[in-house]
Amino acid sequence: MSKSNNKMSVWQLTIITVINMMGSGIIMLPTNLAQVGTMSILSWLVTAVGSMALAYAFAQAGMFSRKAAGMGGYSEYSFGKAGSFMANYTYGVSLLIANVAIAISAVGYACGFLGKELSPISVGLWTIFTLWLATVLNFKGARVTGRISSFTIWGVIGPVVGISIFGWFFFSGKLYASAWNPNHIPFFTAVSKSISITLWAFLGLESAAANMDAVENPKRNVPIACLGGTIGAAIIYVISTNVMAGIVPNAQLLNSSAPFGLAFATMFNSTIGKLVMGLMVISCFGSLFSWQFTIAQVFKGSAVEGYFPKIFSKITKDETPIIAMVIITVIQSMLALMTVSPTLSKQFNVLVNLAVVTNVIPYLLSMASIRVMQKSENVPAGRAKVTNFIALVGAVYGLYALYSSGAEALTYGSIVTFAGWILYGFVSHKFDLKKDDMMDRVA
């Protein structure tokens, strides 16, 4: 089998980008946003601008970068191998954590669909089973992953598009207005609180860049997938979550473990509500499935660069890093057990907050490297200025998102990041000593 025969098309990469954002992020969004109220639409505007700025910058980076390994390659332009390592390391840690949270979300939604209640330990064990199932299904490589993702995305697209179109027939402007700020949270506090919630929904906009080694014609297709996926997700997010707030009372949304199922049950009947819940379970698993593939690609790219152990770079005849997938899933299984909490939502929130913080680090490194990247690739000055400004907007948004994540998440995220610098010390001799030797010879 030739390499090109097992590459994803631009459509499949765009689908993976969309499902990485939507598949798990949107199913609990209405419940999370209900904590703030319908004034969270202001946070959507801020996040939409910030996410589009990030996506545009990543699209440009995909066109001009001559370095592999996605965001690690982008970061290398300004920060050298140390910055490249940190981008790959923090992104890899973020995905490790986020995938466990997605698996927990899938288990929780499935419990709601089946009407079952599980103990904390049972949730942990079913989470581990879900992680391993997603891993094993990825063993056949990129093209199979793309095909399965193209199917599972409809589990969320169907209900979300349905409520975005037909939900207006059940929409109550009075109900929407009454939920504007139900908890009387100060304006800037409310906006900041929902910023971190909406950012979680957009995590994944960079996944097209992370999969650049697994797609046909990456110079052309990565930018298309980045921008197309982010624009599509932004439109769907804003419309669906806001129309739902005018259908279901805020208090009911706040206490729901399956908000889309609740909305469809309110609009039609409980049977349709159950059907929607089932579709959302499929979508959530599809998101986990795509992310398990993406994280294996990140670890593989890091191993090829010499950052991670070489064992992560070993591939099968289908060009699949199975050994990396197995090691990653073992680590995730331990995380699932280590974070077992009295309630599923508490365990989910702990993981999500840490995932958001660690995910922003490679965003910031990449945005800061855009200027040097364009100079090194002789991008015309006019075009470079526009991209540099947009990258700066994305970076400012990233800093604001870190601030909005809260002190606890920042503390743990900082510890994880500082640990990365220590780990770099164990591999830096592969890069820094070579430079020193060359300088000595020149001298």
From TrEMBL:
<protein>
    <recommendedName>
        <fullName>Putrescine transporter</fullName>
    </recommendedName>
</protein>
<feature type="transmembrane region" description="Helical">
    <location>
        <begin position="224"/>
        <end position="248"/>
    </location>
</feature>
<feature type="transmembrane region" description="Helical">
    <location>
        <begin position="275"/>
        <end position="299"/>
    </location>
</feature>
<dbReference type="InterPro" id="IPR004754">
    <property type="entry name" value="Amino_acid_antiprt"/>
</dbReference>
<feature type="transmembrane region" description="Helical">
    <location>
        <begin position="151"/>
        <end position="171"/>
    </location>
</feature>
<feature type="transmembrane region" description="Helical">
    <location>
        <begin position="9"/>
        <end position="29"/>
    </location>
</feature>
<feature type="transmembrane region" description="Helical">
    <location>
        <begin position="386"/>
        <end position="403"/>
    </location>
</feature>
<feature type="transmembrane region" description="Helical">
    <location>
        <begin position="41"/>
        <end position="59"/>
    </location>
</feature>
<feature type="transmembrane region" description="Helical">
    <location>
        <begin position="347"/>
        <end position="365"/>
    </location>
</feature>
<feature type="transmembrane region" description="Helical">
    <location>
        <begin position="89"/>
        <end position="115"/>
    </location>
</feature>
<dbReference type="InterPro" id="IPR027566">
    <property type="entry name" value="Symport/antiport_PotE"/>
</dbReference>
<keyword id="KW-0029">Amino-acid transport</keyword>
<keyword id="KW-0812">Transmembrane</keyword>
<keyword id="KW-0813">Transport</keyword>
<feature type="transmembrane region" description="Helical">
    <location>
        <begin position="121"/>
        <end position="139"/>
    </location>
</feature>
<dbReference type="InterPro" id="IPR002293">
    <property type="entry name" value="AA/rel_permease1"/>
</dbReference>
<dbReference type="InterPro" id="IPR050367">
    <property type="entry name" value="APC_superfamily"/>
</dbReference>
<keyword id="KW-1003">Cell membrane</keyword>
<dbReference type="Pfam" id="PF13520">
    <property type="entry name" value="AA_permease_2"/>
</dbReference>
<feature type="transmembrane region" description="Helical">
    <location>
        <begin position="409"/>
        <end position="427"/>
    </location>
</feature>
<feature type="transmembrane region" description="Helical">
    <location>
        <begin position="183"/>
        <end position="203"/>
    </location>
</feature>
<comment type="similarity">
    <text>Belongs to the amino acid-polyamine-organocation (APC) superfamily. Basic amino acid/polyamine antiporter (APA) (TC 2.A.3.2) family.</text>
</comment>
<keyword id="KW-0472">Membrane</keyword>
<feature type="transmembrane region" description="Helical">
    <location>
        <begin position="320"/>
        <end position="341"/>
    </location>
</feature>
<keyword id="KW-1133">Transmembrane helix</keyword>
